[in-house]
Automatic annotation (TrEMBL):
It is found in: Cytoplasm. SUPFAM superfamilies: F-box domain. This is F-box only protein 31. Pfam families: Cyclin_D1_bind, F-box-like. It comes from Rhinolophus ferrumequinum (Greater horseshoe bat). Residues 388-407 have a biased composition (Basic and acidic residues). Residues 13-39, 382-445 are annotated as: Disordered. Pathway: Protein modification; protein ubiquitination. The keyword Cell cycle applies. Residues 67-113 form the F-box domain. GO terms for biological process: DNA damage response; protein ubiquitination; SCF-dependent proteasomal ubiquitin-dependent protein catabolic process. Keywords: Cell cycle, Cytoplasm, DNA damage, Ubl conjugation pathway. The gene is FBXO31.
Length: 539
């Protein structure tokens, strides 16, 4: 009412001038003394602001400020105002009146919404040649398919994958990200398009499958439910090659591994490669994708979390996601293999148990490193046992841990002074950094023990710090999985390693140097739920 009164030019009076003209002096005085607390009346009168403003302008006193209806503004100013509003609000604005609806046909408004909301930097004026307006691009392409933008994991059995759906010029393209060729873990990621969506005419957007080597062809996209969509190729004959399956396999091998089968002398690796080709090619780009988020970061994290490429022996390079969870960190597979499938937690780092490596000469002795790690493992076991005895009411054992706490191997330990137990989640990394011995910025010399195999001999020779950790190993088909002790080595802000004690193997991980839009989790709880969901699919 107060807003309506001001717009009607009646000053602090209760009610608009139109209503007052129908009242006597006594009724008006009584109305002015009543509290204005009726929300329904406020809503009704707020909807009549424009009408009150027009009528109040004719009888306003000399002290009333000048009033101006939104309808009286020049069209060019209304274009600027409307262009600054979210595109989702503009259809409602078009229903207000004919003038607004006519102004909202101005392409300048929709060109700005395309640029600010979806990052379209192309010169949209060239659309005029095809008769497609910026409004069409926004409504029929960008807004319609906004729910599939971001990072996704395809359901390809144990192999998984990483799909990034982005607005690329006047297209929406699904790029499959692939690790560099084994064992060059520091090389940049490779990527290839799987599908694209664009406007060919004003009616609707066109979906095209990009799989194969015969150019774009007809495809289909269906949004199954929230955070899940599927793709289908309607012309799978475009995926076939004239030389048959042998030519398709040789082409796939060059793209996937950067070599021929004759160049791979390891018989077991040849079997794994052939198995992956047979399994993945049967999908013919008819896949279901589930949304994944990048891990949230905290100032106290040991290093910035995110995606990393890692070496996995005969399986080649795989993509993992490093995330921090209070006193531990976890590396979850985004791509996988028949032994440890995508979605599983490949490595867990106990940030409460630092490992002080011996000098370089003693570090070359595998038995010495093994002795140190096994001593820490026993310490972790005793601390777990003590926790169980101190808190018998926690009978479940993992009742107070996060939903992603593994059922094997060391759990989070509360070792340390009693004062540390009151720290907030994420402080594990900060505590570790505080304990780091001064090295004059040079770090600690590092060398792999004799007998530990590595796919990449070009690993860093200095490290910042090391922690006790566990790695997940299993037989073919994810049979008999178990967590075994190991050492997490932090080299720098973009690289870390893990020594698998039982396998006598070393994995080197390097950060994926790429920026991803629409990939941040809406909340830490949403990220934890996402991790739990992708793990359950392959458990």
């Amino acid at each position: 009412m107060a807003v309506c009164a001001r717009l009607c030019g009646v000053g602090p009076s209760r009610g608009c001038r139109r209503r007052q003209q129908r009242r006597g002096p006594a009724e008006t005085a009584a109305a002015d003394s009543e509290p204005d607390t009726d929300p329904e009346e406020e809503c009704i009168e707020a909807g009549a602001v424009a009408l009150c403003g027009a009528e109040g302008g004719r009888g306003a006193g000399p002290s009333s400020p000048p009033r101006c209806s939104l309808l009286e503004l020049p069209p060019e100013l209304l274009v600027e105002i409307f262009a600054s509003l979210p595109g989702t609000d503009l259809p409602s604005l078009a229903q207000v009146c004919t003038k607004f609806r006519r102004i909202l046909l101005t392409d300048t408004i929709w060109r700005r919404r395309c640029r600010e909301e979806y990052g379209v930097c192309e010169n949209l004026r060239k659309l005029e040649i095809t008769g497609v307006s910026c409004r069409d691009v926004y409504a029929k392409l960008l807004h319609r398919y906004r729910h599939i933008l971001g990072l996704w994991q395809p359901d390809i059995g144990p192999y998984g994958g990483l799909l990034n759906v982005v607005v690329d010029g006047l297209f929406i393209i699904g790029w499959m990200y692939l690790p560099p060729h084994d064992p060059h873990v520091d090389d940049p990621m490779r990527f290839k398009p799987l599908f694209r969506i664009h406007l060919m005419e004003r009616k609707s957007a066109t979906v095209e499958c990009m799989y194969g080597h015969r150019g774009p062809h007809n495809g289909h996209i269906q949004i199954v439910k929230k955070d899940e969509f599927s793709t289908k190729c309607n012309q799978t004959d475009h995926h076939r090659m004239s030389g048959g399956r042998q030519e398709e396999f040789r082409t796939w091998l060059r793209e996937e591994w950067g070599r021929t089968l004759e160049d791979i002398f390891h018989e077991h690796m040849q079997e794994l490669i052939l198995m992956k080709f047979i399994y993945t090619s049967q999908y013919d780009n008819c896949l279901t994708y589930r949304r994944i988020y990048l891990p949230p970061s905290h100032p106290d994290d040991l290093i910035r979390p995110g995606l990393f490429k890692g070496t996995y022996g005969s399986h080649g390079l795989e993509i993992v996601m490093l995330s921090f969870h209070g006193k531990c960190a976890r590396a979850t597979k985004i791509t996988g293999d028949p032994n440890i499938p995508a979605g599983q937690q490949t490595v867990e780092i106990d940030l409460m148990h630092r490992i002080q490596l011996p000098d370089v000469e003693n570090l070359r002795n595998f038995n010495e490193l093994s002795r140190i790690v096994l001593e820490v493992r026993e310490q972790v076991r005793l601390e777990q046992q003590q926790q169980q005895e101190d808190r018998p009411e926690d009978g479940e054992g993992h009742g107070r841990h996060s939903p992603r706490e593994p059922q094997h191997g060391p759990a989070q330990s509360s070792a340390g002074p009693p004062a540390e137990k009151g720290r907030e989640p994420g402080d594990g990394g900060a505590m570790a950094a505080e304990e780091q011995p001064a090295q004059g910025g040079q770090g600690q010399p590092f060398v792999l023990p004799v007998g530990v195999s590595s796919r990449n001999e070009d690993y860093p020779r200095t490290c910042r710090m090391c922690f006790y950790g566990t790695g997940l190993i299993a037989g073919h088909g994810f049979t008999s999985p178990e967590r075994t002790p190991g050492v997490f080595i932090l080299f720098d802000k973009d690289r870390f390693g893990f020594i698998w004690l039982e396998l006598k193997s070393f994995s080197l991980y390097s950060r994926v140097q790429a920026s991803f839009r629409n990939a941040d989790a809406p909340s830490p709880q949403a990220f934890e739920e996402m991790l739990k969901n992708i793990q359950s699919l392959t458990s």
